[in-house]
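Progress note, sequence design subtask.
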């Protein structure tokens, strides 16, 4: 039998982030500086999701747990279209800290909002009127001088009319309820659209913590997770950088100003402009955890609480729920727990026909090193295979794995003697199993003969 040779992981060429703590728990005993945070997750149709943006960044940034549902992996979805951003680079409108999208993409959001209102039983005329007011063009200042002048003029007009502006807490506010920017403020509350996203962050910048570096934002130099709408001394909200307001690229009508004619971004075949509008249907990305990841965070690290219908689930109840929802969850979690505890970052290996993929440090730094098949056996390495493999299928799987620069690894979970199926009903069975790793490699007779001749 030839000895297995372990190859070094293949590092990615371009890495845009630094390596942090492998787990979302503090590594120091100084509780004054580093706090232990228990994240909150909820179960929706047997899927575990995390909605809080800070907790999403904490779980993915420290251990690469889960994946964003609107992104490839890292939860960094942005409505902004990069090609339009580069096209309008240098224009005055693009200097505003707002996302730039096409008119077709904006119309899709309008149609989604329309269908949502129709499901609530509203009539077509009310929907048209509400969306017409909600998505109308918004006149906004294009630089800070114009913004301060506009705010001062509005404050002076309010004083003449005897209308006091509503102050916001800690100098941070939102645009909802301000008739200058919110066209639906005149409608009754029961007719207004409900915002299901997280509220604007009301924590002052000097007290805001960065969970990527376990320090204050002012100390580590990172940017806040969400950009908020700032308010001036008068208490009025000033348009800030967020996804609620977007710049939509639309075709111009026949008339245009001299300033727009001199814009370098105006194309000859079609004259286009950027119009600021309110986004009627906002998309919020959340982190989706696999069942193995969720249970590891709950059982092994104790930094996650999973709730179902606002009721937190115990470890035993969560184990029973996952076992009933996923076949062979017990064995898949044991393998996940084993490799996670050894420092690997396991991910689903479905696209390569295996159970797990093992990454060193994480997907942003290295390509996957091993494709793992999990098998449950007794002390004599016998038992009903979880994945029946013939020599032909094993050879094909090994060749597929080698073509993507990985190695095939079989993880044997060895049951103790006199182990019964009833013991699988509790996570305490994890402590009774042993693990044996076998690396599968293709044996080439000519290469083996040449190595012996060299010796």
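Output:
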């Amino acid at each position: 039998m030839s000895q297995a040779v372990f190859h070094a992981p293949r590092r990615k060429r371009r890495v845009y982030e630094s390596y942090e703590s492998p787990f979302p728990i503090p590594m120091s005993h100084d509780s004054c500086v580093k706090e232990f945070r228990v994240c909150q997750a909820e179960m929706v149709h047997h899927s575990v999701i995390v909605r809080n943006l800070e907790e999403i960044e904490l779980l993915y940034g420290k251990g690469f747990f889960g994946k964003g549902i609107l992104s490839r992996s890292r939860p960094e979805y942005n409505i902004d279209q990069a090609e339009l951003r580069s096209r309008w680079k240098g224009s005055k409108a693009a200097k505003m800290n707002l996302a730039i999208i096409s008119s077709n993409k904006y119309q899709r959001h309008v149609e989604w909002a329309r269908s949502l209102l129709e499901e609530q039983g509203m009539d077509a005329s009310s929907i048209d009127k509400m969306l017409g007011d909600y998505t109308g063009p918004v006149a906004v200042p294009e630089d800070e001088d114009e913004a301060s002048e506009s705010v001062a003029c509005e404050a002076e007009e309010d004083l003449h009319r005897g209308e006091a502006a509503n102050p916001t807490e800690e100098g941070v506010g939102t645009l909802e309820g301000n008739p200058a920017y919110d066209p639906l403020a005149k409608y009754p509350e029961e007719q207004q659209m409900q915002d299901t996203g997280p509220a604007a962050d009301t924590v002052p910048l000097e007290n805001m913590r960065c969970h990527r570096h376990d320090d204050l934002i002012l100390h580590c130099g990172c940017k806040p997770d969400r950009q908020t709408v700032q308010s001036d001394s008068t208490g009025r909200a000033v348009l800030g950088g967020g996804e609620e307001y977007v710049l939509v690229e639309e075709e111009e009508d026949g008339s245009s100003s001299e300033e727009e004619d001199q814009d370098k971004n105006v194309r000859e075949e079609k004259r286009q402009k950027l119009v600021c509008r309110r986004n009627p249907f906002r998309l919020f990305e959340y982190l989706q955890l696999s069942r193995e990841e969720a249970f590891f965070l709950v059982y092994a690290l104790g930094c996650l609480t999973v709730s179902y219908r606002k009721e937190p689930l115990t470890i035993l109840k969560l184990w029973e729920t996952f076992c009933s929802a996923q076949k062979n969850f017990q064995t898949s979690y044991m393998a996940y727990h084993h490799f996670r505890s050894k420092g690997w970052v396991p991910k689903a290996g479905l696209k390569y026909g295996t159970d797990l993929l093992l990454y060193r440090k994480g997907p942003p730094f290295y390509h996957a090193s091993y494709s793992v098949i999990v098998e449950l056996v007794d002390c004599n390495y016998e038992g009903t295979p979880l994945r029946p493999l013939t020599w032909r299928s094993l050879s094909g799987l090994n060749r597929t794995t080698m073509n993507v620069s990985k190695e095939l690894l079989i993880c044997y979970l060895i049951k103790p003697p006199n182990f019964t199926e009833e013991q699988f009903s509790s996570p305490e069975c994890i402590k009774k199993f042993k693990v044996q790793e076998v690396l599968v490699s293709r044996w080439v007779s000519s290469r083996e003969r040449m190595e012996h001749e060299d010796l």
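Confidence is low (pLDDT under 50) at residues 154-178, 189-203, 225-243. Work on this subtask will continue into the next period as scheduled.
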